[in-house]
């Protein structure tokens, strides 16, 4: 009996060993490494010098513009995504004909898994000098600048992250008990108050999941501001690329990265609080 | 509402359609379609740097997805056998691997590996009998490992979901009929979770093949297809990039459809 218990534990350990090793070496240790770097100093020649100081964190305002852009455009982008995504998710979950539902859902999932670089490039192509502005020049509107503006970045954000917002909202609406809607109508509620009191309320966990996921990924976004914002609209991601790959100030970059992670954690906790307070938390399937 | 939904689908697909359309443009400019031609595909595929980057990406995506499918499935099976506390710890770490932005994964892996190499390389050199010791550096290995982290977490989640819906009665029936645990696994569990494993592999492949930001940090001197494309986009937009984009988009769409089809298969054939 004891022997078989030992064997059972051994099998479990062997099954979990590769994943544990991976998580420790490529997730936990790297995180510890940047945490240590973030309280260190920059060596004169550009590397890392061991120290215990909060100087890097005190220096964060040096990148205030990047933080400001990110902290404004990430929530704005997530909100814009939400406003576009909700009606689509609602239609897919509650209005679309049954035989169309899976096909439409697949059409939402496909862009999510196709290269963000290529999809952002598509907008660069359309908004760039030889795209829409060139077409508008034919009808007499000259010198219109679309690319390298905050508007272009916002458009790219909605385009890139819309599927990720639609999916969790769809999941929560799809699991909605239809009898509640009937009960609400039977009790004399107007369609609007049924929507506000039942549908919207019960789909809030999905809304919060979608909003926090999109928001967190946007906090670390690099491609969209780089390609559609040119040198003008830069995010924290751009500051990190600059600090790690160009000016090689790793301790300062690490402090920014840690701050980014802390902000993400706060966003997650707040979103989680809101959705558990309003109703039970739900899991989201990303595919 | 219907009109709005149609408009959103158009919004999602028209830009991609335009990129594809203009990859067949005989002319050079996005503003006018001057005729049908496949010259840009020819140009793209005869560019040695591009072909090299494509080969690198295929190798990295295949290796990291295979590793992830193997380790992720093992982890999902192992997590069925542990207590609630261990499980919660793993779930938190796996969730972090998925949710932490790629830019943070990229830089933290870069920092950790550079420090690690600074310790390991002199040590290897001191052990090595000849003058040319092997030197660990950023490259294939670091990209595969960093991509594998996200992919493994993804596979664990997908396979775990499938395992949770597995019919326990079948497993019990199998052991009641004196099947060894290994036989039960091979003939009951594995066939049921296989579609999820394959779907996980395909999505992991797609992720690795498309990822730019993680590879950008840990690639060292190597080039992957997205890194090459990013660099050429910054030099200027040309129809050649449209041709590459079309190929990559088609490949991803095909892989995602395959993955969805696998996940949709409820009952695998015996």
From TrEMBL, chain B:
It is a multi-pass membrane protein. The keyword Aminoacyl-tRNA synthetase does not apply. The keyword Transmembrane applies. Residues 54-259 form the ABC transmembrane type-1 domain. Gene3D superfamilies: MetI-like (1.10.3720.10). It is found in: Cell membrane. InterPro entries: Bact_Polyamine_Transport, MetI-like, MetI-like_sf. GO terms for biological process: transmembrane transport. One of its GO terms (cellular component) is plasma membrane. SUPFAM superfamilies: MetI-like (SSF161098). This is Putrescine transporter subunit: membrane component of ABC superfamily. The lineage of its organism: Bacteria, Pseudomonadati, Pseudomonadota, Alphaproteobacteria, Hyphomicrobiales.
């Amino acid at each position: 009996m004891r022997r078989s218990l030992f064997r059972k534990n051994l099998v479990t350990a062997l099954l979990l060993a590769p994943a544990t090793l991976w998580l420790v070496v490529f997730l936990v240790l790297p995180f510890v490494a940047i945490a240590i770097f973030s309280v260190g100093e920059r060596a004169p020649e550009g590397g890392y010098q061991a120290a215990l100081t909060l100087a890097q964190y005190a220096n964060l305002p040096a990148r205030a513009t990047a933080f400001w852009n990110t902290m404004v455009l990430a929530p704005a982008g997530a909100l814009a995504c939400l406003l576009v995504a909700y009606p689509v998710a609602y239609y897919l979950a509650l209005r679309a004909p049954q035989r169309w539902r899976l096909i439409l859902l697949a059409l939402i999932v496909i862009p999510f898994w196709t290269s963000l670089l290529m999809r952002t490039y598509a907008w660069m192509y359309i908004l760039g000098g030889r795209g829409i502005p060139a077409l508008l020049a034919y009808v007499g509107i000259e010198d219109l600048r679309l690319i390298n503006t905050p508007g272009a970045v916002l458009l790219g954000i909605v385009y890139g992250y819309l599927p990720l917002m639609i999916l969790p909202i769809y999941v929560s609406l799809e699991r909605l008990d239809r009898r509640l809607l009937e009960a609400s109508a039977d009790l004399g509620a107007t369609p609007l108050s049924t929507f506000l009191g039942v549908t919207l309320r019960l789909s809030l966990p999905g809304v919060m999941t979608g909003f926090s996921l999109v928001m967190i990924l946007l906090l670390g976004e690099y491609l969209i501001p780089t390609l559609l914002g040119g040198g003008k609209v830069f995010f924290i991601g751009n500051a990190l690329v600059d600090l790690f790959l160009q000016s090689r100030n790793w301790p300062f970059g690490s402090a920014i990265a840690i701050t980014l992670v802390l902000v993400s954690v706060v966003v997650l906790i707040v979103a989680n609080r809101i959705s558990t307070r309003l109703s039970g938390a739900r899991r989201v399937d990303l595919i | 509402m219907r009109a709005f939904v149609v408009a959103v689908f158009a919004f999602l697909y028209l830009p991609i359609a335009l990129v594809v359309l203009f990859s067949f443009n005989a002319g050079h400019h996005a503003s006018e379609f001057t005729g049908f031609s496949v010259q840009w595909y020819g140009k793209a595929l005869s560019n040695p740097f591009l072909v090299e980057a494509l080969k690198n990406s295929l190798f990295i995506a295949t290796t990291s997805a295979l590793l992830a499918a193997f380790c992720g499935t093992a982890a999902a099976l192992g997590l069925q056998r542990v207590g609630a506390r261990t499980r919660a710890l793993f779930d938190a770490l796996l969730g972090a691997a998925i949710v932490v932005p790629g830019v943070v994964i990229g830089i933290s892996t870069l920092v950790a590996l550079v420090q690690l190499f600074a310790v390991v390389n002199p040590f290897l050199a001191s052990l090595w009998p000849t003058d040319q010791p092997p030197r660990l550096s950023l490259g294939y290995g670091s990209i595969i490992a960093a991509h594998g982290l996200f992919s493994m977490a993804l596979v664990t989640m997908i396979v775990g979901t499938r395992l949770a819906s597995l019919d326990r009665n079948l497993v019990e029936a199998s052991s009641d009929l004196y099947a060894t645990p290994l036989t039960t696994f091979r003939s009951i569990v594995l066939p049921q979770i296989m579609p999820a494993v394959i779907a996980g592999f395909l999505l992991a492949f797609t992720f690795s093949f498309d990822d730019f930001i993680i590879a950008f940090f840990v690639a060292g001197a190597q080039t992957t297809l997205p890194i090459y494309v990013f660099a050429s986009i910054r030099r200027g937009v040309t129809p050649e990039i449209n041709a590459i984009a079309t190929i990559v988009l088609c490949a991803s769409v095909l892989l995602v459809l395959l993955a969805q089809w696998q996940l949709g298969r409820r009952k695998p054939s015996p």
